[in-house]
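Long-time lurker. I teach an intro course on protein structure, and each term I like to show students one example going from raw sequence to a predicted 3D structure in token notation. This year I'd like something fresh instead of my usual example. Would anyone be willing to generate the tokens for the chain below so I can use it in lecture? Attribution to the forum is fine with me.
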Amino acid sequence: MPSDLPPPPRPQGDYVPAVLACGYVHSAGMTPRRDGVLQVRGTVGADLDVADAAGAAGLAAANALSAVAAAAGGLDRLARLVRMTVYVACAPGFTDLSAVADGASALLAHHVGTGALPARSAIGVHALPGGAPVEVELTAAVREDEVWRRR
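-- Reply from a regular --
Happy to contribute to a lecture. Here you go:
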């Protein structure tokens, strides 16, 4: 498993990056930030093409994976990625949401393999925080022995 994840992102408001509860770790919505700075802005289908948006989704997914791994005590403590939601700020009529979300899935596949990808939704929205083109939420199951150890 590659370990080239960014450090867990610092919250941009009054929330925590991820929460471990009842054997699952849930990330906050993560945008394509690096060192707290939004790397990509715009509306997909108007300001950004699918390739640029998919790259932004990959960076947002890296932040989400980093946050859940940190909350679980390490990437090796995750038993399974369970669910991912990719929100896409898109122009009216834009429907290639899955192609944008594929950028997030590709990043996860790089770290956990294609056989361990989560179930996924791709949802088009009008706007996202700071003008981000994408926001990713990730849920993972934590190894059972870790759940008991961390209590």
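Some talking points for your students: The radius of gyration is 15 Å. The mean pLDDT is 93.
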